[in-house]
From TrEMBL:
Polar residues composition-biased segments: 85-100
Annotated stretches, region: Disordered: 85-124
Lineage: Eukaryota, Metazoa, Ecdysozoa, Arthropoda, Hexapoda
Annotated signal sequence range: none
PANTHER family (alphabetical): TRANSFORMING GROWTH FACTOR BETA REGULATED GENE 1, TRANSFORMING GROWTH FACTOR BETA REGULATOR 1
Keyword flag Repeat: no
Protein name: INO80 complex subunit E N-terminal domain-containing protein
Keywords carried by this UniProt record: Nucleus
Taxonomic superkingdom: Eukaryota
Organism encoding this protein: Nasonia vitripennis
Coarse class of the protein's main subcellular location: nucleus
Alphabetical list of InterPro entries matching this protein: FYrich_C, FYrich_N, INO80E_N, TBRG1
Key word Repeat present: no
């Protein structure tokens, strides 16, 4: 009996000890489980916070780019790539702005010793050489919103700069492939009527291909290897008497317009151009600062503006009455206008 009682006592004590250990481990398991659960929740919250911060960083970067683009347009002379490199702390070019400013200070010191007339001479030259850029709407990324309307000229695409072929740019102009614009001018069928012409610059291999297509003659594009050649063919197609007008193809296409030229110059790939010399632009501060804009040329140049064309030949017709003999081609064109 005593042996059975002792065995049962030890067995119960062993079972009780094992039960207490199980309870102890169970409590530890619950604590570890709670810690893991809290860690997972905290990790998820941190992930959400990191994602939110990344979104905020993207928005801030876009706003920063927009402000930099606007600053580049306001200052005009500063290259956007150089300004971006300076803002990031990596200067891509060896401080061009400081070198550009120090000679001006030296010139001012030298001119201060000389006569005061020499101070005004370079200023007058700068005023005549300046190119005024008009303000255009931009998106949140600082890119222009198309179409860009500039009087009779409307630009729908700037195209892509071709840097590996020398014929696609000159010292003053860039011919981007894919450039597309429209302009209102005299119709091919009737010079008294207006017509909408689409101007394109296409990839022609070694040389670019320039096209002018009328909305009334879509299947008969006027093609040339240069903008002047294309514009000259347009004037001849409208009337042979317009051969006396000097062609201005770059102005007709719009690639020489300061606003468009500034946007093309800011496109990627322009730094690789071997011949092109970067132009300097100034932002238009008021509506009267348009003395060098091609929009005024549309109002005075008969080769660019419809109203200027009719006004030019109306004045020349009164002059032809007083002078003898009159040009037959001019009279034929006046009959078309009458």
């Amino acid at each position: 009996m005593s042996n059975s009682y002792g065995s049962t006592y030890y067995s119960e004590a062993y079972n009780n000890k094992e039960h207490q250990q199980n309870l102890k481990y169970k409590k530890k398991y619950k604590k570890i489980k709670e810690l893991i659960k809290n860690t997972v929740i905290e990790n998820a919250a941190l992930c959400d916070q990191v994602a939110q911060m990344q979104e905020n960083l993207v928005v801030v970067k876009e706003e920063r780019l927009m402000l930099l683009k606007r600053l580049c347009q306001l200052q005009g002379e500063i290259d956007p790539a150089t300004l971006l490199a300076k803002s990031q702390g990596t200067s891509s070019s060896p401080v061009p702005t400081s070198d550009a400013f120090t000679p001006k200070k030296n010139v001012k010191k030298r001119n201060s010793v000389e006569t005061p007339d020499t101070k005004n001479k370079p200023k007058r030259c700068n005023k005549t050489m300046r190119k005024v850029v008009q303000l255009i709407p931009l998106d949140i990324h600082g890119r222009p919103i198309f179409p860009i309307s500039l009087g009779d000229l409307t630009v729908y695409s700037l195209g892509d700069v071709v840097a590996d072929r020398i014929a696609y740019h000159t010292e003053d102009l860039i011919y981007p492939v894919g450039y597309c614009s429209t302009r209102v001018y005299a119709s091919l069928k009737d010079a008294r009527m207006k017509s909408l012409y689409t101007c394109k610059i296409l990839d022609g291999g070694i040389k670019p291909r320039f096209e002018i297509v009328s909305d009334t003659e879509l299947d008969q594009p006027l093609v040339g290897s240069s903008p002047d050649e294309c514009h000259s063919r347009l004037l001849t197609a409208i009337s042979p008497s317009l051969n006396s007008i000097s062609p201005k193809g770059a102005d007709f296409f719009g690639i020489s317009h300061p606003t468009i030229q500034n946007l093309i110059q800011s496109s990627p790939g322009t730094r690789k151009l071997s011949i092109y010399k970067p132009q300097k632009f100034e932002i238009s501060k008021n509506s009267t600062d348009r003395d060098t804009s091609p929009i005024t040329e549309e109002e005075t140049d008969p080769g660019l503006g419809f109203a200027a064309l009719h006004r030019h030949y109306a004045l020349s017709s009164t002059y032809a009455i007083k002078q003898e003999p009159a040009n037959r081609e001019l009279l034929n064109f006046q009959e078309l206008l009458s």
